Amino acid sequence: FMWPQYAVEPARNNLRVTLHALRQALGQTDVGKSLDQEYVVFVDGHFALDADRKLWIDVDEFDADFESGVRLERQNRIPEAMRAYERAEILYRDDYLVEDLYEDWAGARRERLKDQYLLLVTKLADYSLKQGDAFGCIVRCHKILQKDACREDAYVRLMRCYRQLGQPSRALHWYDICARTLRKELDVGPSDPTNHLAARIRAGQNQPFGLVQPDLEHV
What we know:
The structure is a single chain. This protein is mostly helical. The chain has 8 helices and 2 strands. The protein has helices at 8-25, 58-74, 78-91, 104-130, 134-147, 152-164, 168-186, 192-202; strands at residues 40-43, 46-49. Helix 6 runs antiparallel to helix 7 and helix 7 runs antiparallel to helix 8. The protein is elongated, with a radius of gyration of 24 Å. The model is unreliable at 29-36 and 209-219 (pLDDT under 50).
C-alpha cells in the first residue's frame, strides 16, 4: 500500500496529487481528456500505464544508443559509433533517480548507467582529441570530472588541450588541481607520466597533439 501511515482521506489526496503530477510529466493532464487518451488508466481497481500506448523513456533510449555505439565501434565504424555516443550523452542529464539516492532497488542501475556515461564521454573526449578538437575534448573532460574528480586521465587531457591552444599556464593550473585533488581524496600524487608532462609544459617543449590513452602511457 502507498502511504500506509496516513488515514484513508489524506492518502487519497496524496494519490490524486501524484496522479496529476504523473500525467503532467507524461505530457497529459486530466483536463479535457477522455480515458482512452490517457497514459495512466484505472482498470480493475488499479492504476496502471496503458500498455497499448507507446511510451518514450529516456533511460531506455540511452541504453539503446550506448549499445549501438559499442556495436558500431566493434565493427570499426568509428564516426557512426561516436554519433551514437553523442546521442546518449545528450540524454544523460543527471544520475538515475537521484531523488531516490538511498533506495537499494535503484542503486545498481544508477551505477551501471553512470559507468556507461563515463565510458562514452571518455570515448568522445579521446575522439575529439584525436580529431584535433580541443574544445570538444575540454567539454567532455569537465563532464568526467563532475562525476569523478579523481580521474587523472581527464586532467591530463585538459593539460594537453590547453597546451595545444597555446595556454600553458592554464594547462599547469589543471595539473595543480589534479595534484591537490588526488592528495586530498586518495592521499597519492600524480603519476610519473603526468609529472613528466607538466615538466615538459613548464620547459616550453612541444609535442604533437594526439590521443591520450586512459592508462596514461602516451603522456
